[in-house]
Every structure is written in C-alpha cells, then in structure tokens.
Amino acid sequence: MTEPSPAARAPSPALQRPPAHPLAGLALGFVGVVIFGATLPATRIALEGFSPAFITFGRATLAALVAGITLFALGKRFPRQHALSFLAAGVLLVYGFPGFSSVAMQTVPASHGGVVLGVLPLMTATFAALFGGEKPGLAFWAWSVTGAALVVIFSLSGADIEPGLGDLWLGCAALSASCGYVICGKLARTQPGWEVISWALVITAPLSLAGALYSWDSGVINPDATAMMGFIYLSLGSMFAGFIFWNWGMAVGGIARVGQVQLLQSFVTLGLSALLLGEQITWVTIGFAIAVALVVWFGRKAKVG
C-alpha cells in the first residue's frame, strides 16, 4: 500500500486553527468593545425617533445592505456548510440582543444597562466551554467570577439602581449575545470575522426587511437628526463594524479569553452615557473600572485549552 501524499495527510482548512495570539486578540477585541460600548447610549438616542421594533429590524436591514454589497463586490461565495450556524448567529445577534436591549432601554438608564451586561464575559466563557471547544482552567474561571462579581457589586452599590423588568430584558439580551458570540468565534476560525457577521446579516435579511416594512408606520416617529445619527450608528457600528474586530479578536485570541475584555464594556458605556446623555460618573465608578481592568489583565495569562 502506498503512503498518502503530504497533501492527503494534511488536515482540511476547515479543521485548522490559526495560532493563538492572546495580546493581538485582546487588542482587536477591545476595539470591538469600544464600538459596542456606545450601543446602549445610541439606542436611547434612537428611541427618540424610532420604536424598539423598527430599531431592531431597520438597523439589521441597513447593515445587511452594506454587508451584501461588500460580499458581492469582493466576489465571496456563500459557505453552505455553515448555513445553520450563520442563521443561529443571525437570530441571536441580529434580532435577540438588539430587540431585548431596545425594550430594556425604555425603562432603565443606559449606564445601568451597561453595568448589568457586565455578566457577558462570564456567560461567553461558559458557552465557550459548553460548545465552543475550549477548556478554561481553574485560574481563568477564578478571574472570570471575580470580574463578574465586581461588576455585580458595582451594579448593586448605586442607590438609584433597583432591579426591575428592564433587568429581565437585559438578561435575555446577555444570553443571546454570549451564545451568538461563541458561534461567531467558531466560524471566525475558518474565515475572516467580517465575512461571518456579513453572512449572518445577509441570511436573515428577508426577515429584517419584512420586519422593517411592517413596523414602518408605527415605528418611525418623526426622528430628528440626532435620532437618525443614533440609528445609523447602531446599523453600521454596533451591527457591523464592531463585529469585524470582535470576531477577528476571538479567532486569534480565543473565545473565552477575549470575551473577558467585555468586562470593560460596562465602563465604556458609562463614559459614553456621561458624554452623550449627561449621566453622572463618580470616583467609585472609576475605581471599579480600574479593578476590572486589572482582572482582565491578569486573566489574560490564565490557561485556556
């Protein structure tokens, strides 16, 4: 029997992983986090002229249009073997997170929502361990729980923050996002991160367009220029550009490890809420932000198999 050729022995490209680059992944992930950090303030602004339903479907439609044009211009072909994964990611990230967070922003401040979503990294690490093929070590889990605990303590430390129905919607948003991130992170191991979010947007585009048209009459409430800017940011920033850096970061740095960078998103949201919405930032907030940043820094060295 003849020995197989080197090409036959080599694993298929779909099974190969790029080498891990933790620092590069963290840097790329942080760029995505900064873009995502403006999502809740921008949602509050967009709600001045649009309903939650139209924001959810309308921003997905605009983002899908840009993604589709980009894919067509570059001659990309749809990877049919990943169709179900793209559909799942689309449902969770194109509709789940935006829809739940838009409803939540009707009843809670953007700064409060940013803090509650601080549980995202821990939930992302959990899903990465369950079906993302990663095996975080005890040290990693210790830093993850510490970071989540800091964010929860910070959330409960404000006298003006009371748990309510908005927190339930935020919890659903976090569940959708963390599960969707893991699916995108797995897909981004075999193709560029921008293609992953682009195909997720395109495959769900018919539903996005139908929802936008259905909610047009009741969902577009005489928006001014500021509301329009918020809507456009949600479409092209939160729904598209942010995922390019985020998926790329998870692919090269690991889903669970890069997911910890999102501990900082709460504080990015707080800073932008103060800048854009006039919400107050205290020295306690700054102290917690520093503590969380240290957790992310030390956690980056924890073992993830």
Question: In percent, how much strand structure appears in the residues?
Answer: under 5%
According to DSSP, the number of beta strands is 0
Structural class: mainly alpha
Radius of gyration: 20 Å
Q: How many helices?
A: 16
For the biggest sheet, the summary is: none
Order of helices and strands: HHHHHHHHHHHHHHHH
Low-confidence stretches: 1-19
Helix content: over 70%
Report how far the terminal alpha carbons are from each other.
Answer: 37 Å
Mean of pLDDT? 80
Name the overall outline: globular
Strand and helix map with partners:
Layout: H1 6-9, H2 22-37, H3 39-46, H4 52-73, H5 83-104, H6 110-116, H7 120-131, H8 138-157, H9 165-187, H10 193-203, H11 205-214, H12 216-219, H13 225-253, H14 255-259, H15 265-277, H16 283-299
Helix pairs in contact: 2-13, 2-15, 3-6, 3-13, 3-15, 4-5, 4-10, 4-11, 4-13, 5-9, 5-10, 6-15, 7-8, 7-9, 8-16, 9-13, 10-13
